[in-house]
Design brief:
3 helices, single chain, mainly alpha
Amino acid sequence: MDRLGRRRARAAPRARQRLPAGSYRHLVDRLTASFHVVSFEARPLWSAEEPATLSDWRPLAADLRAELRRRGLRGLLGVGHSLGGTLTALAAVAEPELFSRWS
């Protein structure tokens, strides 16, 4: 707990709890009928990375932004669940030009 009595955030999930992008295959298959769908494996899913070494989500959002730029993607509609949603939101705040404005 911190000095205000709030629970501290836990480190990213351990290997046995990880859900790779492929676990959403059935949903993605339906979306590809109408959208160009791309996925990205977050750093905790990289075999050489130890999730417990992460202190916050910003490096993961930076990884996502770098990958989107590497793929030449812009004007995206970002969608994610849990960690993916958080990283997408952080990436959109840091580099809004990567994402479309949907209002």
